[in-house]
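JOB MANIFEST
job_type = single_chain_structure
chain_count = 1
residues = 91
[input]
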Amino acid sequence: MIHVRKVVPYALMVAVASGLYLISQIFGKIEESGMSQFQILLSIKAFLASWLGVRGINQKLFKINPWVFKSHFFPFSFVVIIILLSQFMYI
């Protein structure tokens, strides 16, 4: 468990950074009719992942505790929502 606590936060930061890069590559052009369902779901996923990334960076690098939600339930629910959105993106 000691090794996991050292490695996982940095791995999550790399995952968030690479995810933000990939979103910039695959988001696509917004048409005059508005965003597609794929773009809307991708935007929601990007927001949730960015929140998780900022929270993790503040905790690990700057030793700042979470502002509002201090339990692990809220971030875990974000991860579950992101996974579900991923499934709905390809329907």
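[summary]
The chain has one domain: 2-88.
DSSP finds three helices and no strands in the chain.
exit_status = 0
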